[in-house]
Amino acid sequence: MLTGIHVAFVGGDMRQLEVIKRCIQLDASVTLIGFDNLESIFTGATKKPLTCDVLKDVDALVLPMVGTDDHGIVESIFCSKPLQLVEEHADALPQSCVVYTGMAKPYLKALLAKRQIPLVELLDRDDVAIYNSIPTMEGALMMAIQNTDITIHGSQVIVLGLGRVGMSLARALHALGARVRVGAKRPEHIARIYEMGITPFHLSELKQQVTNADIIFNTIPHLILTAEVIAQMPQSTFILDLASKPGGTDFRFAERRGVKALLAPGLPGIVAPKTAGQILANTLSRLIAEQCANREVSA
Length: 299
Ligand code: NAP
Prior knowledge:
With 299 residues, the protein is α/β, with parallel strands linked by helices. It is 40% helix and 18% strand. The chain folds into two domains: 6-124 and 273-298, NAD(P)-binding Rossmann-like Domain (Rossmann fold), CATH 3.40.50; 127-265, 3-Layer(aba) Sandwich (Rossmann fold), CATH 3.40.50. The longest helix has 26 residues, at 273-298. The structure holds NADP nicotinamide-adenine-dinucleotide phosphate. Residues 129, 132, 136, 161-166, 184-186, 203, 219-222, 242-244, 264-268 line the site of NADP nicotinamide-adenine-dinucleotide phosphate.
């Protein structure tokens, strides 16, 4: 339970509603900042503007998945006025407060580090990234189906990277009957791909591997689908780049060659906001409860 704990939410999207609902269910005292246009206000939550006063007794401050931009602007689909987290707001937070977000830009990291306020980046956690790979994989399949005129079954598919997303995707594509090859660098990844009954290849062979690819899913956040590699693909290849912006594809060259290439960020929030919200709610509620239990022990 989160009885007696003050959780403030600043901005967010549909995913945040699941987290808010969970905190209320667990009896936290909940303040919503930047939710002016949210029609159905949850019973048990209070809407407030972003002021220093409202932040001064907050135990946990929850920001959206991308905490702030490089100027402290916090995105909220529930508010038409801009929300900006500035120095004075950080000064108002108590030392015992913990700030939670998906991933933080340097602006937010610096703002909190200066005041030694702990910051938790949920997407850095292996458990959250593995759960999140499920809606990501489903969204990637949806986009591949929408952007090709062939079935996934029987198609020549390449997955680049055997991380959290790459593994979920390779397994699902294999189960759907695609002819899957996975490109990786580490010997243990090559061994795992083989163990999964999938064809591995070393990334150094990428140029040779792409010559008959129908669909390429990239999960490597590094320029990997270079002009040199794209030049070897059939023009009908579809590239779906899932890696964080700017992706791992030379999009300019792909367009020039007539190869369709799309960057597809934020799929969990697009295809399954409720599930994506529940994934965050499960982890966040546990972390806030642990934070408060640790505080009581050390008090
Ligand atoms: P991950 O577990 O860290 O996997 C990344 C993979 O890329 C690993 O196999 C890693 O291999 C490989 N890699 C990284 N840098 C490399 C390089 N320079 N050369 C060769 N291989 C390299 O990450 P993830 O959780 O699967 O996520 C993958 C990407 O998708 C991230 O950019 C993440 O932000 C993004 N993502 C996007 C969505 C979406 O909706 N589009 C959703 C979730 C995640 P090593 O371990 O050997 O480095």
